Give the backbone structure.
Amino acid sequence: MVLDVPVEIGREAAQEAALRELSDPAYPKPSWLDQVLDRIWELITELIARAQGVPGGWLTLLVLVLVLAVVAVALIRAARKASATRRPGGGGLFGETRLSAGEHRTLAERHAAAGEWAQAVRERLRAVARELEERTIVEPMPGRTAAELAAEAGRALPALAADLDQGARTFADVTYGERPGTPEAYAELTGLDEAVRREKAAL
C-alpha cells in the first residue's frame, strides 16, 4: 500500500534535481542568445527584489532596466544579421547594388583584368541575371538568389538550363563557399552571358 505522504525537499536539492533533469541529452541545448537573455531577465528580477524598500531604488531600477533592454535588442539584431549573412543567398543575388547588365559586365571585365577572379565571377553572373530581367525573360524580383534565377530562367530557356544551373553553383561557391574564383570559372560565365544574349536574339 502506497501512501501519499508529502515529501519536503530543500531549495538547493530541488535546484540540483532540476539541473540534472535539464542536463539530459534529450533536452535541446539553449543557444548563446537564449542564455544571455535568460541572464538579463535574472538580473532584472534581482534588481526588482533589491529596489523594494530602498529610497530612490525604483528610479535606479528603471534606468538599469532600460539599459539592459537596449543591450538585449542590440544582441537580437546582431544575431539576426549574422544568421542572414551565414545563410546562402541571404543577401540575394545583387545585394544592395542596382546596376544595369552593361554596368555589371563592365565591372566584371575590370576585375578580370586585375586578376580579381572571385569578384569577376560574381559580377558576370549578375550581368547575366540583369540581362534576363532587362529582356523580360524573367521578372525582376528583389532578393532572388542565384539558384532561383537559374531555375526560373532554365524553364524559359531550356537549352541553357544546365549552363544556368552550373553558373549559379559557381556563384554560390565563390560567394558563400569561400572558394577562390578562377579564370576558367570566369570564362564559363562569360560564355553563358554571351549565350543568353544570343538566345534572346533568336527568340
